[in-house]
Design a protein that fits this description.
Layout (H helix, E strand, L loop, with lengths): L7 H138 L1 H14 L4
Length: about 160
């Protein structure tokens, strides 16, 4: 039973040892431990603040990236639209130019055909006139071979001519 009954000397010396230990811990250990705890708390708080700032920066950059992508899409669409309009304009100009050139060539061909036609008609007229002259010459030579026919012809011509 001695173990369970408290001895006043043991209680006193246990209390003195505990107070010395408490004093030593307060003097040498609690300050560094509390400073380490406060330092750790400040570093965690700083890290949380930096993480919040980084999250806000990422959010801002993300929204800026979205805006830049949207602007790039709009610019791309505008460039494509402008390129399509330019292509359509070039095609239309080429078509108009080809039609004008075709019309000029057709007109030139018509003029050339008319010139060739006129030249052919002139050639035909010249050949007809030459043939007519050749025929008339042959007819007249035949007529003038016979003396009596010449006199008959002259008398007929004189009858037709009336003197005023």
């Amino acid at each position: 039973m001695d173990l369970v009954s408290p001895n006043p000397g043991l209680i006193f010396w246990t209390l003195v040892s505990f107070l010395i230990l408490l004093f030593l811990l307060k003097k040498f250990a609690w300050k560094p431990i509390l400073e380490a705890i406060f330092e750790r708390e400040r570093s965690i708080e700083d890290a949380l603040n930096k993480a919040e700032l980084a999250r806000e920066e990422i959010s801002r950059l993300s929204s800026e990236n979205e805006a830049l992508l949207k602007e790039a899409r709009v610019e791309r669409d505008a460039i494509l639209k402008e390129a399509k309009e330019l292509k359509d304009q070039i095609v239309a100009e080429a078509r108009n130019s080809a039609q004008e050139e075709g019309a000029k060539l057709i007109e030139k061909a018509k003029v050339e055909i008319n010139n060739q036609k006129a030249a052919a008609l002139d050639e035909v007229k010249n050949q007809v006139a030459k043939l007519s002259l050749d025929i008339a010459e042959k007819v007249l030579r035949k007529q003038f071979d016979d003396k009596q026919k010449q006199e008959t012809l002259v008398s007929n011509l004189l009858k037709d001519v009336k003197l005023n």
